[in-house]
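Box 3.1. Reading complex inputs
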Amino acid sequence: MIFAIPLSFFVGATFCILANKKINAKKIAIAFALVNLALCFQDKFINNLLSKGSFGLGGWTPPYGIEFFAEPVGLTFVCLVSMIGFFGLMYAGSIPSRSKLNDNLFFALALFLLGALQAICLSGDLFNIYVWLELSSICAFAIMGYKTKEGAFATFNYLLAAGVAGVIFLLGTGLIYGASGTLNLAQISTFSNPGQSMSAGFALIITSLLIKMALTPFHFWLPDAYGNSPTKTLGIIPAIVTKAPAIVLFKIALQLHQNQINWSNFEFFLSLMGAGAVIYGSLIAVKQTQLKKILAYSSIAQLGLVAIGIGILDVKGTLIQIIAHSIVKFSLFCSVGALEFFANIKTIDDLKSTFQKSPILSWVFIICGFSLAGIPPFAGFFAKYYLVVSSLEKNNFFIVAVILLSSLLTAGYFLKILENIVFTKYTKKPKSSIPKTTYFPIVFNCSLVIIFGIFLPRIISALEGLA
Amino acid sequence: MELLNKFPYIANCALLILGLWGVLSQDNLFKKIIGINIMQSSAILFFINLAYLNNGKIPINPQGETGYIAPLPHVLMLTAIVVGVAFTAVALSLLIKINKGYRTSKESVITKREKSKL
């Protein structure tokens, strides 16, 4: 059954290519995303979420056949991709296409991207992870760079970074295969004493994943690529694409740690890079004036927190950080995209009449900004809370300081936005004509930020009780 | 003899570094794509080297015999070649888009124009 989840996206993508004027691609894409959502949130699947399961493809048992491996970290992300994907497609469908862009191809590529992202996190086999990673990034290049020349150039830089990362991943896979004779992740991690070539292989794979998740020294492609990507893609790309490599990294980290391989070097290394990303991203974000660029640098900072979570191997904190950040960034990027498309608001100074033009989106900005800064009733608070608690348990006060500093810096650049939205004099300007279908996904996700904030402690204790 | 056995791996390293140098140093975006292609070839050759065995037999119906060439890396590399082709296709189509927009494919010229806009 687990194969049906990514497969539903791939089947939908094939139908999208064949769509015509009567049954348009938008409806097909949303229908298949709904099927995927239903498959992800069915009872049986939630039960799988709490247990571990291995599924061989084509009737071959795992060490020989291709394996889909279900475990809590990956499955949580699969559910997240399904949800964000559904709302992202809905958002993309609500934006009318001004240029003569082929809608069929856009939705087909978006569905392939979402399916590949789900398959990355289910796959338990290094070479398959490579193939899915490449599929997801190739689809991402295509839908990010189709519209403007600036977008194409920014995407080209992303393509070069991801291409080099892909080759590095393949070489790492080769080294591990040569040393251990297997590609199965679970079987590889049973080698309790890895030799030199296996360690080198893991180092290459981790480097490649760090490039793909845009951690600080490798973040150069991200701000331009997000800042120039077309409005339609804003619901899908910035929220989840860089988190899939992070999840793979986390899975590898957990597997290696389980088998008593010395993780402390990686812990130091990842925490240091994460701290660098948090500080660098937040400081640069303060300087930016373009809204999309501010959000892009803020993404870099938040991914730094994810890297810190992976470094100290804190499952709860990292997962909540990934979920909270995806939902928040989805709402923020979509509102910025809608404001740019329908009201021509691009920079901070343009924001001055926003409260009158669109009060709903202003509230979205306020709630999501508070969540990013980690103010208690919202979802972002719990991510930081768990990260701080588990780093205190490890007596790692450096990380605690960095996390608290990140709150302060986030407040720094977000208060600039909020100041322009809230504390400006009313001018007589008409309300903008943002359609209701655009509002719906944004408002729904923004309400999720509050709901998560209120109910998350209960959900976590319930999950712990079941497991 | 020792060095002769290691020669394919040294050649792999040379190819990898050549490709990386191309990606990092070349100004022309088309040459950067070629650099990535060279890197991909080096990774593919690395897998093939892993599977190679001197005087190895063809792995069809081995029937208890030993000393045949491992088939799995070859199969994996077929997939990797397909991935590489798809990657190159998207890269070239983006390059066409860039070239139509800016009338050049030199990175330094394009970055200069982008900076002068701000």
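In summary: The interface with chain A takes residues 16, 19-20, 23, 29, 32, 36, 39-40, 42-43, 46-47, 50, 73, 76, 79-80, 83, 86-87, 90-91, 93-95, 97-98, 100-102, 110, 114 of chain B (CB under 8 Å).
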